[in-house]
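Aim 2, interim progress. The first record below pairs a target sequence with its structure tokens.
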Amino acid sequence: MSAGLLGSDVPLADRYDLALVDLDGVAYRGHEPIEHASEGLTAARTRGMRLVFVTNNASREPGSVAEQLSGLDIPTRAEEVMTAAQAAAALLRTRLEPGARVLVVGGAGLVTAVHDAGFVIVESADDEPEAVAQGFAPELGWAQLAEAAYAVERGAWHVASNLDLSLPTARGFAPGNGSLVGAVRAATGVEPDSAGKPSPTMYRLAIDRAGASAPLVIGDRLDTDLAGARAGGYPGLHVLTGVSTARDAVLAEPHLRPHYVGEDLRSLLEAHPLPTRSADGWWTCGDSAARVDDGALRLDVRGTATVDTVRAAASAAWASADEGRPVDPASVPDLPVGTH
């Protein structure tokens, strides 16, 4: 698949049969709705697009996630939610037989997923677990992290639900599971395996479960959602309602680049024009154009910046970088597109 943007002359909801939708920063923000999320997803469903919500959060049960989404006018069933806890349990099954002992360091969602996969859950390293499954839970403390470290030191396989260093909350960014996993890694020197994004494991599981033939990944974070799309070979839509900004997309390295960019989830209902390159090096999309001169990004925008501006700027910057002429980040302005 191309390392650049893709174009679509029909709405994405008509081109793809399954949307793999991230949660925080895409469908909601903390406990608050994101503007146009319900509108965009409801209309996409009306067009025949199926939805599976794919989250690196391993602390919550799928039913709890579905209940929250339904309360935000996004009707969802538990089977339409794929969590990193479920992915971690699936990863454990690749090496361990049912009945193996697993030390679970995490919330109820991880406990349920590991139990449902057929493993025996233990709480102490002295129970000689064959693996440690670690996921985020706000109640985790030193004692649980210490048990994980003791078990890993003794040879237990360390499986992390995800490696997100930060976690968005209503008050800002707090330490995520990756930060807590880092404490165990620092104590043991052992690098864990991860089931969560940017690993494409969850995407593959969700696609197989849905029987989809044309999936589309939707996320707000380049380093998890869109990196996972690239790693799995799936097209990815970057919506500008969460963590990664339009400027981040323009400066993205190849393995982090989205295939489509949209202001919010209404972009599922829109065609996505592909920027074109002229002989003099300008990349044009709609009323915006961009080129790179001596490592500096130049923009020609009629009126205010739009998603087309982001598309043109990304195409110019990515092409220049791929040709061995990386763009000076200082020349890339903040592009006030999307809500954060």
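The second target in this work package is listed in the same format:
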Amino acid sequence: MTDTVEYNGITLHKQSEYVWEITQTGEMRSPARVFASEKLLSEIGDDDTLQQLVNATHLPGITKYAICMPDGHQGYGFPVGGVGAMDTTDGCISPGAVGFDINCGVRMMRTNLSYSDVEGREKALVNRLFETIPSGLGGGGVISGDRKTVEAILTDGMKWALANGYATPDDLSHCEDGGWRPDAAPEHVSEKAKNRGEKQIGSLGSGNHFLEVQRVTDIYRDDVAAAFGLQPEQIVVLIHCGSRGLGHQICSDYVRKIEKGHPELLAALPDKELAAAPAGSELATAYYGAMCAAINFAWVNRQVIMHQTRQVFAEIFDQSPQALEMELLYDVAHNIAKKEVHTVNGRDRELYVHRKGATRAFPAGRKEVPEAYRTVGQPIIIPGSMGTGSYILRGGENSLALSFGSTAHGAGRVMSRTQAKKQFWGETVRDELEETQHVYVKAQSGATVAEEAPGVYKDVDEVVRVSDALGIGDTVARTFPVCNIKG
């Protein structure tokens, strides 16, 4: 491959190994950059990801460049795997650049069990988890909440979970932002969104959301793995879900409000799905407050699921969660916009850092990193597919300079859900995983398994390799599925 390539009429110039730039031209307010190997770049260039990335550079106040991570693929307006930092004074905030599933994210919980402790109990474990943790489209949650409960969760985040017996103090101290966004403003969340939230507290949902019991197969950095409490053959649990219907409704509400409230800004953008509210406007303030409330809801949602998981393990292994040392390693958000201070051209600036399908990846020393990990860097959890495994990374030294402290969030899709259902048969995928890789999967339908078959995703090993090589997220450990439940 030469130093200049073209996909769908968009030209990229190689800046350095794994860094490709789209030159600022026309109405673009900044260049755009893609972090990818040649193989991943060819997959990223296969849909509308690059055009969406170029479109994102038209957002007011965008700083340095719009970024696509190595797992990038086409999304709603703004690419999944995208990062954009907009000035909080003369920039904007865009619901489309956050995503509909606000604070979709992952958390990993450690245990003191080894793989040998679980062998022979996989089916009992997967069946009990599936019975205990609600999943699927719509559906109920663990908690039958009322309006007062929902508003308390929106306001207090994981502090509510602690006060109501669903969390420990250590859970809060090992979560991004301590599991609480103080800027949350439930008064800016619609009644319809709150109604949807009442029924879904403690539920996985559908699509690519899952709970997976895993074993640690590889350690790459012994000192960091020790700080994270990880060792070979250890059993860990990975939970992936978000703010459910509540977050989706908030995004829908504010896209419509912004389209009506700021038509002049919308008219200047190449795609109405990027609808953005100018920084300092009433709608920008309202959306930020509502989004932060949804962030709090999502953290509680994952926390309640983790609480249920602790109870299932206690039942199956006849020991208390404390005796099993079922402790939160970390929880990271994937779809989020946060006010952060970053150094740009030698000057500190407050920015709305939009991460859509991207993970915060702060290095050692940054004050936002929990005290337990501040000397080694923030944990990053990158899920792969049901048949390939996942990774734990830590924030890399180059992340602040290259990517506003961000890296990839997963393997990234190479095939739509419709295509997947045409190519794969869910029951066959499930049976092959069990027979050939001893991975036990239970889902609400075969269609869900087909949509999430290992073949629909990019090579997570390659995604992580690029992150590590760039120094934005350093590889610490690898895990492999034992059993998986999904909606």
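The first helix runs from residue 38 to 44. This observation will shape the mutagenesis plan for the next reporting period.
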